Amino acid sequence: MVNFTGKKTGIYLTSCIRGGNTDRRPGWLIQFEYDPEVIELLKTQVHYSDRGWNERTKTWWVSEDCEDILEALFDNWYTLAKRQGALF
After folding, report:
1. How far apart are CA 42 and CA 70, in angstroms?
2. Cα dihedral angle (65, 82, 27, 73), rounded to 10 degrees?
3. Are 14 and 33 in contact (CB under 8 A)?
């Protein structure tokens, strides 16, 4: 499902905004439809110190250092993350 060759994975984000974690580390706040396989992929690809789950908001925080992983994992990450700056 996940590859780093630029091929589509079929996994899409429903939300992606810049934001920090509770320690104010910069990164991305992402959401996607619940899928245990996608969650497991995220956990295996992103080190635990570079990700976090917010139960209240149902949002994952992922460090900005992991942008290449997010781009490989989510087909629409680039569009949501990199093009949003042009909108604001």
Report:
1. 9
2. -60
3. yes
Residue 66: HSE in the Cβ half-sphere, 13 Å Cα cutoff: 26
Separation of CA 57 from chain center: 15
> How many CA atoms does the CB half-sphere of 42 hold within 13 Å?
25
Burial class of residue 4, CB neighbours in 10 A (0-12, 13-18, 19+) = exposed
Please state the pTM of the whole predicted model.
0.85
Confidence of residue 35 (pLDDT cuts 50, 70, 90): very high
Nearest to 81 by CA among 5, 12, 15: 15
**Rounded distance between C-alpha atoms, residue 81 and residue 75, angstroms:** 11
Q: Which of these, 55, 2, 63, 52, lies nearest to 27 by C-alpha position?
A: 63
